[in-house]
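Worked problem 6 (solution included).
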Amino acid sequence: MLTQPTLPSRPRQLLLSNAADAGVSRSVLPGGIRVVTERVPGVRSASIGVWVGVGSRDEDPAVAGAAHFLEHLLFKATPTRSALEINQSLEAVGGELNAFTSKEHTCFYAHVIDEDLAMAIDVVSDVVLRGLCREADVDLERQVVLEELAMRDDDFEDLVGDALLEALFGSDAIGRPIIGTEDTVMSMGQEALHTFHVQRYTPEKMVIAVAGNIEHDEVVRLITAAFADSIDPDIEPAPVRAGERDLVTKPGTTVIHRKSEQTHLAIGAQAFGRHDLRHRWPLAVLNTVIGGGLSSRLFQEIRETRGLAYSVYSGVDTFSDTGTFSVYAGCQPEHVAEVAGLIRDVLSDVALNGITESECSRAKGSLRGGLVLGLEDSSSRMNRIGRSELNYGKHHSVSSVLERIADVTPEQVAEVARIVLSRPFALAVVGPYKKKSQVPAELRALAGQGFLPG
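Solution. The predicted structure is:
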């Protein structure tokens, strides 16, 4: 049973009463721990996430994949719980316990009935702070990660996505796969993983986000109890990851040979970092029009009108200092040239002529509906406030975001299209090609240039 601990010296709890969302509260605890909560009326659930500002781009090349490896490893044991006991704690109450790793952060989370929140906070914090890196567990979990790598290699859509980032960003850490490589996973030992854990997973780099049928003051009490032994009151919160970096790359082409029935292709160019708020929503509208839904230009031209592909879409990834705009398609090899030509035509037309008023209106409606409908449960709310706190250090109300989307004009989208689509694109291909020269010329022509004619 959790009890109220004695606070460390110089308690610096700060409750921000001016949070942009009416139900969002934020406190900064001694040691730099940020606690952000959102009360969601009408639900009986609660979600807790411990967000750590450490991801795959923070790794040295020799330990590429360490954050993801550690995500697996910390669940194996703590000083007071075995792996079975960790899992049984949540399963016994019908809850969910999991984690994920990204380029710039890692999140350990649980979703439970509201009355089990105290237990969930205790378990998740125990795993993050005190998960053991035992030699036997490292060797055991290494094989699990290798199986995950093999699974990624068998999923050609995922494989071509990783290959595209490598083709776009080259040797920069952001271009490396989150999961690492077989070589780095095989070479990482217990000491390297333990060092990565104790040096990087420190409270000042953490945001604890909780949403659901909860009370902020009670959450703060529970977090204070769970983190009491790890708090250094003289440490300030880690700053928000900066977005000021001139990342210059030379986009290339990556071809991975597989005996597949389809050719999987992805092209992409650098876009904007998440701190570039001017371009964020116009880019989202552009992406929706080009390939973000069933009425998008790519889907209509390639699948609906000609039936050349089952899956075709565009996407946007956003990091602190850069981002990507990309297009994916999977089709039979004999259709690659035609699909490549259609992708070129769609992107060139948008780059030159922008989008129509009706396309802009439909895309904004899609984005606004998706945002609101995606926040119907406590897990989604927890994810939103956790990411906002870690990435920006502040929060915007849903209504203010909806207003930003509504304010996007076709002219703003056209400006973003001219910027992004004129940049050189990288190309990644997974399919029955043993060397680049075997890839159809129409597809190879998509790489190394932009799509703004003239």
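Discussion: The chain has two domains: 14-230, 253-444.
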